[in-house]
Amino acid sequence: EAGVTQFPSHSVIEKGQTVTLRCDPISGHDNLYWYRRVMGKEIKFLLHFVKESKQDESGMPNNRFLAERTGGTYSTLKVQPAELEDSGVYFCASSLNQGAGEKLFFGSGTQLSVL
Amino acid sequence: RKEVEQDPGPFNVPEGATVAFNCTYSNSASQSFFWYRQDCRKEPKLLMSVYSSGNEDGRFTAQLNRASQYISLLIRDSKLSDSATYLCVVPRSGNTGKLIFGQGTTLQVKP
After folding, report:
1. Using DSSP, how many helices (H) and how many strands (E) does chain A show?
2. Which of A20, A50, A82, B42 is deepest in the core (most CB within 10 A)?
3. Which of A57, A101, A61, A103 is nearest to A79 (CA)?
4. CB–CB of B96 and A56 under 8 A?
5. A interface mutation test: which of B99, B105, B106 has the most A CBs within 10 A?
6. How far apart are CA B24 and CA A21, in angstroms?
7. What average pLDDT is seen over chain A?
8. B-chain residues near A102 (CB < 8 A)
9. A107 and B31: CB-CB below 8 Å?
10. Looking at residue A59, what is its pLDDT?
11. What's the pLDDT tens digit per position in B57-97?
12. CA of A95, closest CA in chain B: separation in Å?
């Protein structure tokens, strides 16, 4: 069974440019999450989709970040315009159900470097 | 105060040693807890779930102390392959998959 896949694995862009990250969850998983780890900090929640709906976007840093999940399958996370502090590793995760004890499956992440 | 706190280490131990990590959490209403393992430049992977007082899986034992609000992970007979960062994770209370991560504790097992 394919796991959570993310693309690209690495992205290097200049400040002010736009970058779009993609996540394909495990087939059949309605719940999709985006997390981010910036240098020296802990992994932090960005947002949670249930199918195509945003269940919780309380972790989105600002309006330069836009997440979509049209059709309830794959998701994209766009950063426009990118700033230096956006550099970090962006992880996507999916789960079959939602709940505090639910197991999340993580993708291998996209390493974003903003220069 | 951070919601989940861990000693970042690194913990450098010889093969065969027993090592323990602690993690404290601030939300007394938390009911479930996880230890995730993250290898360098890889994704976090679930190692153990901790729901009641604790549980054991082979060389790994996780314990929960609700009164003091901490979780521990004990690794016995350390292997070189145990070298990784161990993340203490506490789900946000309620019907949500939002996870609160600690900063992680780095373990390096030496030959």
Report:
1. 0, 11
2. A82
3. A61
4. yes
5. B99
6. 33
7. 93
8. 91, 97
9. no
10. 93
11. 999 999 999 999 999 999 999 999 999 999 999 988 765 67
12. 8
Q: Do B104 and A44 contact (CB within 8 A), yes or no?
A: no
Contacts of A59 in chain B (CB under 8 A): 98
Distance from CA of B93 to the nearest CA of A (A): 6
Place of tokens 């102390």: B65
Contact A42 B102 (CB under 8 A): yes
Model pLDDT, residue B85: 96
Give the separation between CA B106 and CA B82, rounded to whole angstroms. 10
**Residues B64, B53 contacting (CB under 8 angstroms):** yes
Asked if B92 and A42 come within 8 Å (Cβ–Cβ), the reply is no
Tokens of A105: 């499956």
